[in-house]
């Protein structure tokens, strides 16, 4: 297990850096990151239940909400809503376990990999680091795909309005992905979380906006139809095998839409104490999961009720809705603005880890450490760092390139959701909780949690298989 020496060495290499990281840091800062009373000498932690819930909602309600109607369509009227409620319950159990692991021998674990290192050791820290990196960068890739789909939907909406719904309005994704990447090259020069509060606020407002619009349009469509479409068994497929593949992929999509284990401990590290951070975090999680589940059920159920077997993979870009075209345009513009901020929420931890590692490795390098003041018209004074500019630009280019190779919305969400769901949201929190609470093997609680973990592992396997099959089929077609 981890010790005090490992804590000090580890600070510069942990994936998912704490939200309360200092703006300027050096190797001398490492010793002060933890103390017995939980305070942080670099930042005063003032977070509350409501700020924690807001962070969670901003991070969770994203691209996933748009695929929920399609997922319910694949699973049907009984299994679909039950799957959403089940994942909500699983996510709450996961956050309950992980929030209790925030403190290790009275010291704080401000990131996911800090916790894995301290509780399970260095070997498992490397394993979890791979999954954390895949989760963070994979979400960024999914956001690029989604943003391009939304821009394309705006163009098609305007075309359909002018030329009629039967017009051949065809637009590619590549140009819009490149444009989103160019925007992110500039946005990625935001130093850290402390400088992007305004961006998070805008992103949160946008996520609520397009979620409400999706819900409202689905509700209005049901009223217009005068009937509730869909069936208990869901959208029919050509054969049983294809039906199973699509159902598995739907589970992967729902898995992508819920868990937030990777960002839970950084959020918890912003909460003031007393009361104990884990108590506040559990309250925040309960509020956030309730709000998220409400939106998912509303958007998903009304979307499926409105379109039945024709439910699109992405509720606001699949063109079940044509009019009012200006509202469709506005909703998709909200999605793009939200994803500009969402990309940064999931990319900044990677930026922080890599840059801190290079600063510790090359303390004398001017390329890595020196900042240059730049004044642009209508903007405040900027301080640019050569290494930051090069690395972050290369990262944005790489994620954009991968998105261009696999521009398949539902399939990509399913693969990412299935890959990260069990290891990050279930396995590691359960194993750390065993150590935290000193749970004896084969005790009742041990058996219950082991069974819970195994069940979630099976869900991950079937979701991953279905999503990979869908991704391969989409790539070959």
If you had to describe this structure to a student in words, what would you say it looks like?
The chain has helices at residues 4-10, 49-60, 68-100, 112-120, 122-163, 174-187, 197-225, 240-257, 261-268, 277-307, 325-361, 366-369, 386-405, 409-437, 444-476, and strands at 103-104, 107-108, 371-374, 382-385. The chain is mostly helical and 477 residues long. It has one domain: Up-down Bundle (Amino acid/polyamine transporter I), CATH 1.20.1740. The strands form two sheets. The protein has a two-stranded antiparallel sheet. α5 (122-163) packs across α13 (386-405), α7 packs antiparallel against α11 (325-361) and α14 runs antiparallel to α15. The longest helix is centred in the N-terminal third of the chain and has 42 residues, at 122-163. The radius of gyration is 22 Å and the shape is globular. It starts with a helix and ends with a helix. 48% of the residues are buried.
């Amino acid at each position: 297990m981890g010790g005090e020496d490992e804590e000090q060495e580890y600070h510069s290499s942990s994936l998912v850096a704490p939200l309360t990281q200092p703006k300027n840091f050096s190797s001398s800062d490492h010793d002060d990151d933890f103390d017995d009373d939980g305070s942080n000498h670099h930042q005063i932690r003032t977070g509350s239940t409501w700020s924690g819930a807001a962070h969670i909602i901003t991070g969770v309600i994203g691209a996933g909400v748009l695929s929920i109607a399609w997922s319910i369509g694949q699973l049907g009227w009984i299994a679909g809503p039950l799957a959403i409620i089940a994942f909500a319950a699983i996510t709450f159990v996961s956050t309950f376990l992980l929030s209790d692991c925030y403190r290790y021998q009275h010291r704080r674990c401000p990131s996911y990999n800090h916790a894995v290192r301290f509780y399970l050791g260095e070997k498992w820290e490397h394993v979890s680091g791979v999954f954390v990196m895949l989760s963070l960068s994979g979400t960024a890739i999914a956001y690029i795909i989604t943003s391009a789909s939304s821009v394309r939907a705006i163009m098609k909406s305007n075309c359909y309005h002018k030329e009629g719904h039967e017009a051949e309005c065809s637009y590619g994704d590549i140009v819009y992905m490149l444009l989103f990447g160019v925007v992110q090259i500039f946005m990625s020069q935001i130093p850290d979380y402390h400088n992007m509060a305004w961006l998070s606020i805008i992103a949160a407002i946008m996520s609520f906006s397009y979620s409400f619009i999706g819900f409202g349009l689905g509700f209005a469509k049901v009223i217009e139809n005068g009937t509730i479409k869909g069936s208990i068994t869901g959208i029919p497929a050509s054969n049983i095998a294809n039906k199973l593949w699509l159902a598995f992929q739907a589970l992967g999509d729902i898995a992508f839409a819920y868990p937030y284990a990777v960002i839970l401990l950084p959020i918890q590290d912003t909460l003031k104490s007393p009361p104990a951070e884990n108590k506040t975090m559990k309250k925040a999680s309960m509020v956030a999961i309730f709000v998220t589940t409400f939106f998912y059920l509303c958007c998903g159920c009304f979307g499926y009720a409105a379109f039945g077997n024709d439910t699109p993979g992405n509720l606001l870009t699949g063109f079940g809705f044509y009019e009012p075209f200006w509202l469709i345009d506005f909703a998709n513009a909200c999605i793009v603005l939200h994803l500009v901020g969402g990309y940064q929420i999931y990319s900044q931890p990677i930026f922080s880890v890599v840059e801190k590692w290079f600063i510790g490795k090359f303390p004398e390098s001017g390329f890595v450490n020196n900042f240059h003041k730049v004044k642009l018209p209508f903007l405040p004074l900027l301080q640019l760092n050569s290494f930051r500019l090069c690395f972050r630009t290369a990262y944005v280019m790489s994620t954009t390139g991968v998105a261009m190779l696999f521009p398949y919305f539902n399939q990509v969400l399913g693969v990412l959701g299935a890959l990260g769901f069990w290891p990050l949201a279930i396995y590691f929190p359960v194993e750390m909780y065993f150590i935290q609470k000193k749970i004896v093997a084969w005790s009742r609680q041990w058996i219950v949690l082991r069974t819970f973990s195994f069940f979630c592992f099976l869900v991950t396997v079937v979701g991953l298989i279905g999503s990979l099959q869908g991704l391969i089929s989409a790539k070959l077609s």
